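Title: Comparing notes on inverse folding

I've been comparing how different people in this forum approach sequence design from structure. To keep things fair, I'm posting one structure and asking everyone to reply with a full sequence. Here's the target:
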């Protein structure tokens, strides 16, 4: 998932005045590059290996994107495929007008598969279109509730929900330890014998709170540097 700028969905702070946004429940929101820089500085001061990685990667990207149906569909598309493949599939879905629920449900399974979706992902996309998720409501939910809500939809697992909370909702203290690129980057940066599995990396990431989403950005940047390819679309 490339660094798509945040460009359209209302800020949780803008929503908050009318809807009861509570920073104590939602936590810090990453809105600007200055927020990412603040988190980077905090991580570098806390962990020498993060400081060393930042010297190699340079400034980290904002990686904000609009929230809503298309963002979740994009996360489903990205599941278990390369960044290049996911980008190609997404381009075909856009060309077919299938990035909005009302349009997607009108397309046949064959048309969606022609865009590159597997049979399983076609079912996931249809489940998402029929889910009736209150996307505005997600903006003011605690991250744990966001994940719990999204994972009730077929095809949306914890990884997808955490990626959505990180990039589309801007949550500063969410991590996605099930991500293979993050696991591999942690192995390389911290000199581990093997790639840490999800439970081990989740426990490891508690030390990076309240800026775990910035730690994820740094690890993805480090992965790209070490492997010469993107780890996230």
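Reply #1:
Here's my take.
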């Amino acid at each position: 998932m490339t660094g798509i700028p945040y460009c359209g969905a209302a800020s949780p702070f803008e929503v908050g005045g009318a809807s009861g946004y509570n920073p104590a429940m939602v936590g810090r929101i990453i809105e600007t590059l200055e927020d990412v820089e603040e988190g980077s500085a905090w991580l570098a001061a806390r962990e020498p290996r993060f400081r060393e990685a930042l010297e190699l990667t340079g400034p980290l990207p904002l990686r904000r994107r609009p929230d809503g149906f298309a963002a979740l569909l994009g996360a489903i598309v990205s599941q278990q495929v390369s960044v290049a493949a996911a980008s190609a599939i997404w381009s075909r879905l856009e060309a077919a007008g299938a990035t909005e629920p009302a349009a997607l449900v009108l397309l046949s399974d064959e048309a969606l598969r022609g865009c590159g979706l597997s049979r399983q992902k076609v079912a996931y996309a249809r489940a998402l279109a029929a889910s009736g998720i209150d996307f505005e409501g997600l903006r003011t939910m605690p991250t744990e509730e966001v994940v719990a809500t999204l994972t009730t939809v077929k095809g949306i697992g914890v990884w997808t929900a955490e990626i959505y909370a990180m990039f589309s909702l801007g949550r500063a203290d969410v991590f996605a330890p099930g991500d293979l690129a993050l696991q591999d980057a942690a192995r390389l940066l911290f000199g581990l014998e093997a790639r840490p599995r999800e439970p081990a990396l989740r426990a490891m990431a508690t030390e990076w709170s309240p800026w775990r989403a910035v730690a994820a950005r740094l690890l993805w940047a480090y992965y790209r540097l070490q492997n010469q390819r993107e780890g996230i679309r």
